Amino acid sequence: MAIVAVLLAVVMAFALPGATSAAAGPASVPEPALLRALLSEEAFPLVPFAPRTGPATGGEGLTTAQREELTTRIEAFSEEHRADFAIAVQDLRTGATFSYHAHQRFPMASAAKLTILTMLLLRAEEEGRELTAAERAQAAVMIRHSDNDVTNGLYARMGFTEGFREGAETLGFTGTDPHPRGVWGATTTTASDQVRLLRALYCDGSPLSEEDRAYVRGLMESVAPGQVWGVSASADPADTVGLKNGWVPRERNGGLWTVNSVGYVAGVEREYLIAVLSDGNPGYVAGVTLVEDLVSTVTEAMEDPSDVLAH
């Protein structure tokens, strides 16, 4: 009861972070919300969660010179877009990675919902049970339509901030922290940790059962059409795309937007885990453009490394 009381107080005190409601439909633009401060840190040691065998085509990896040139290209986005951002990509065919500012912390906005569902499943497994029919229905609305109201209840069910910290330890997060008052959209995370989350959902060696992993992947691969952007910029029409995005203007940051995209893309020529986080965007459209430009630039370079130095 204490947790519920705190949750209700938080909901009344804050406008929860960027999402559409199920009633409004996927194309609506979220209302402004209060999100909290973010911390900065640099570096990126992305160690594969587990080996994976993938398609034989593509995935050569970048040489040191190619990696440096790609980093220079990514740095140029800062001047063009005037926003803070981070990206982490892992090619599951080879284990090769590329990252930029992958340990810098950003508010999660509605991208937190994927973490919340994963942690809810971990908690249910610890309790020796499956999700109830009601929980599954709520989870589907949370991921597919990014509904905030059902997320409030599921956040309480997975243990609120204490449950989040336990789940973060299980998932091996090193730079992800819940908001101390339970404003789940104000959770801060890193691109590196978001790729760790994706490995728990898409790779072997996960703390989740295969049944639960398949369940989450199915939701990610069937989000509302208006929310299929970001990570999907690297996909061909026939590719499989699973993602969860987050977007919200932050009053604390002068109304500038947080725009994030986390997900998986797989096809004949690619198989990627991708996390892109950004903050300080002048608007929703500008943020989506930045995220998709980053995704396209990095994945195209990883698919054709020889082309990197040619430009």
> Low-confidence spans: pLDDT under 50, at least 5 residues?
1-59
**Taking all residues together, what is the mean pLDDT?**
83
Shape: globular
Look at the structure and name the CATH superfamily.
DD-peptidase/beta-lactamase superfamily
- Number of domains as seen in the coordinates: 1
In which order are the strands of the major sheet placed? Answer: 2-1-7-6-5
Number of strands: 7
Largest sheet: 5 strands, antiparallel
Rg (CA only):
18 Å
Summarize the amount of helix as a percent range. 25-40%
Output the helix-strand order: HHEEEHHHHEHHEEEH
Distance between the termini: 60 Å
CATH domain fold name: Beta-lactamase
Which structural class best describes the helix and strand composition?
alpha+beta
Strand content: 15-25%
In CATH terms, what is the architecture? 3-Layer(aba) Sandwich
Describe the structure.
- By secondary structure, this protein is of the alpha+beta class.
- The chain has one domain (2-307): 3-Layer(aba) Sandwich (Beta-lactamase), CATH 3.40.710.
- The chain is built from nine helices and seven strands.
- The chain has helices spanning 2-13, 64-81, 112-126, 133-145, 148-157, 160-171, 191-202, 210-220, 284-303, and strands at residues 84-91, 97-100, 106-107, 188-189, 240-250, 256-267, 270-279.
- The strands form two sheets. A five-stranded antiparallel sheet has the order 2-1-7-6-5, sandwiched between helices.
- A hairpin with a 5-residue loop joins strand 5 and strand 6.
- The longest helix has 20 residues, at 284-303.
- The protein is globular and about 55 Å long.
- Mean pLDDT is 83; it is low at 1-59.
